[in-house]
């Protein structure tokens, strides 16, 4: 009977459980933490370091403390050394900006932390020496303007950003969409020398980019630069110590490359010289000593042949010689000059005397064969002639002499070069109006004798 009652009770309990269901245990839910725009962000969950995305189940009602490490940095680029990306917590996806925050898990829940992102920008120059401003941390997707500054001795060439050549725009605008390594590349300046010369005379006024200089003028210029060159025209100068005041006048003719533009623009791509050819006129002053007439002033073109003579009653004077820029040019009349510079010309007169002494000598050695009026002498030789008389003088050329005891027979040869007044005629005719000395300048050659001892 007892067994029947126990079986009945067991069946009753089973039926009740089947009808009412078994009582449930504690519930659990999943908490997920993510970060935007990037994953892999360091977080702390209940004091334990984790990395997003983080997901874990908790019993219903559990409170979890979640903290986003902020700010935090990490290395994301091979082009920038060290940590190059910085993350700063902004807010949660539910607009809550509490960090750290406590989250009660009563359901499956996802919380996303919105992160502010900054990227590091590194700037440098190649070669080193230029400071390109703009390095440091910049907000993601910001536009950064970079300028390559001038660097002495170099010219900016191009930018290289993260290994990519971005050409030569300067300044450069860069979108900071990732860490940036920006290098401003420079090339060494190629420098050349520009030289300005004037001909036929130097020390004339020339200009480079409007600045006045005296020719010749050299200037070191960066390759490829454009310069304006010019020569002042007309211009006048005092170039001779023998005349007082302006004695030369110049007008521009052309450049040595036949260009006639003045001023002109030139591009410097090599060492180059520009020569300005000038039309030149020189002043010639003619006077008498003692003063027999007023000084005459003449302007003549360079290279022209100029002749001058005088006539009329000379009173108690006889013409002696021409003194040209301090040099005795003899007594030949008319005076002929090729105008290659300014000249101060004086016709020198001497008081008439019945007789004058004519001396003919030789240099560098004397006792050479000379002739005066057809008579042979050894130099030096002086003769007295009446005023105004003409005669012919000369020197034997070539002639040989024995001057050394060490060489048998004639060992020195003399050849006529010119007279002391630069006249090269030999013989030459002269007219005597004063005491005069004429020196024949000779070229020397020596005999070199060779022999053996004993002979053979």
TrEMBL record:
Coiled coil: none annotated. This is Peptidase S8. The keyword Glycoprotein does not apply. The keyword Phosphoprotein does not apply. It comes from Mesotoga infera. Residues 125-188 form the Bacterial repeat domain. Residues 1-24 form the signal peptide. Keywords: Signal. Pfam families: Flg_new_2. InterPro entries: Bacterial_rp_domain.
């Amino acid at each position: 009977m007892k067994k029947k009652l126990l079986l009945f009770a067991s069946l009753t309990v089973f039926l009740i459980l089947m009808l009412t269901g078994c009582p449930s245990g504690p519930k659990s839910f999943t908490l997920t933490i993510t970060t935007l725009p990037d994953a892999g962000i360091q977080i702390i969950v209940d004091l334990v370091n984790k990395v997003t995305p983080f997901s874990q189940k908790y019993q219903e009602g559990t409170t979890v403390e979640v903290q986003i490490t902020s700010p935090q940095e990490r290395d994301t680029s091979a082009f920038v050394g060290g940590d190059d990306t910085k993350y700063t917590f902004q807010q949660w996806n539910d607009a809550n900006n509490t960090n750290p925050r406590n989250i009660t898990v009563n359901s499956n829940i996802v919380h996303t932390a919105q992160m502010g992102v900054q990227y590091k920008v590194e700037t440098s120059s190649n070669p080193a020496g230029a400071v390109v401003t703009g390095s440091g941390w910049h907000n993601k997707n910001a536009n950064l303007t970079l300028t390559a500054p001038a660097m002495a001795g170099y010219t900016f060439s191009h930018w290289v950003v993260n290994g990519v050549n971005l050409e030569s725009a300067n300044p450069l605008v860069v979108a900071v969409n990732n860490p940036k390594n920006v290098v401003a590349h420079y090339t060494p300046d190629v420098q050349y020398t520009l030289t300005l010369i004037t001909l036929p005379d130097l020390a004339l006024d020339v200009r480079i980019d409007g600045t006045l200089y005296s020719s010749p003028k050299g200037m070191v210029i960066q390759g490829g630069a454009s310069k304006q060159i010019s020569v002042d025209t007309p211009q006048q100068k005092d170039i001779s110590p023998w005349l007082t005041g302006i004695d030369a006048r110049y007008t521009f003719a052309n450049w040595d490359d036949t260009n006639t533009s003045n001023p002109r623009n030139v591009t410097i791509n090599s060492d180059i010289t520009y020569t300005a050819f000038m039309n030149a006129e020189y002043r010639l002053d003619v006077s008498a000593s003692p003063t027999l007439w007023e000084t005459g002033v003449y302007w003549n073109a360079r290279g022209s042949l100029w002749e001058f003579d005088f006539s009329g009653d000379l009173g108690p004077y006889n013409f002696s010689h021409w003194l040209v820029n301090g040099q005795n040019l003899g007594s030949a009349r008319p005076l002929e000059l090729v105008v290659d510079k300014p000249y101060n010309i004086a016709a020198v007169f001497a008081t008439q005397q019945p007789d004058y002494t004519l001396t003919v000598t030789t240099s560098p050695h004397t006792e050479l064969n000379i002739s005066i009026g057809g008579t042979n002498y050894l130099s030096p030789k002086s003769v007295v002639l009446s005023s105004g008389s003409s005669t012919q003088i000369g020197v034997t050329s070539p002639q040989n002499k024995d001057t050394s005891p060490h060489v048998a027979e004639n060992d020195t040869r003399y050849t006529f070069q010119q007279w002391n007044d630069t006249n090269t005629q030999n013989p030459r005719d002269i007219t005597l109006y004063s005491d005069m000395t004429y020196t024949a300048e000779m070229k020397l050659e020596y005999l070199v004798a060779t022999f053996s001892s004993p002979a053979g």
